[in-house]
């Protein structure tokens, strides 16, 4: 769980008021409870954490490609930085749509410009448009990215299981609230290196730092 993903989730809770019960796919706390435990954000709501491997934070062992939950069971589905590890990701997207309740929502995040990391394996990288297409089965979809538009660090999508005429306003509210909560910045050394290196060798190689606070959220289906 990285700081941006946490900020996106906290902001989504504030803006969308996600309903229960909550299903977290990929809940194993590989970085420890202090970082990975999200249950306090949904106090008073039934919360089930599942993962393909048992461990801390896991209530039941499941695979995103073949969930055992009934259709429409979850008011809120969280699938945070999991899709790069799912071999049959299209089936996973269909399963998330299936288990999300009418008027519920699903938040899915993944990485793009990031090193190979195996929990237990790492297969895929998704563009923002790929995330939009994967979850176009939801009546309303917001999708976005952090970083430079050509080389984003993170990409994400939020699907609403209802038609919503205020998606543009919700997208901007979610973006602003995320930036308010996400205070992480590159180190001073990294900023200096990007400034000097960009002047000497061109800005393209230092996009990650130069566009660190760029966060875009768009309405799907346009």
Output the strand order for the largest sheet.
Answer: 3-2-1-4-5-7-6-8
Question: What coarse outline follows from CA principal-axis ratios?
Answer: globular
- By DSSP, the count of extended strands is 8
Please report the distance between the alpha carbons of the first and last residues.
31 Å
Low-confidence segments, ≥5 residues, pLDDT <50?
none
Q: Structural class, please?
A: alpha/beta
- The radius of gyration computed from the alpha-carbon positions, rounded to a whole number of angstroms, is 17 Å
The name of the CATH architecture is 3-Layer(aba) Sandwich
Q: What is the H-and-E element order?
A: HEHEEEHEHEEHHHE
CATH superfamily: Vaccinia Virus protein VP39
Mean pLDDT: 91
When the domains are counted, the total is 1
Strand content: 15-25%
**CATH fold annotation:** Rossmann fold
What CATH first level would be assigned?
Alpha Beta
Helicity, as a percent range: 25-40%
Task: Give an overview in words.
Helix 1 crosses helix 5. Strands 3-2-1-4-5-7-6-8 form an eight-stranded mixed beta sheet, sandwiched between helices. The protein is globular. The model has no long low-confidence stretch (mean pLDDT 91). It contains seven helices and eight strands, in the order αβαβββαβαββαααβ. The relative contact order is 0.15. It has 222 residues and is α/β, with parallel strands linked by helices. The protein has one domain: Vaccinia Virus protein VP39 (Rossmann fold), CATH 3.40.50.150.
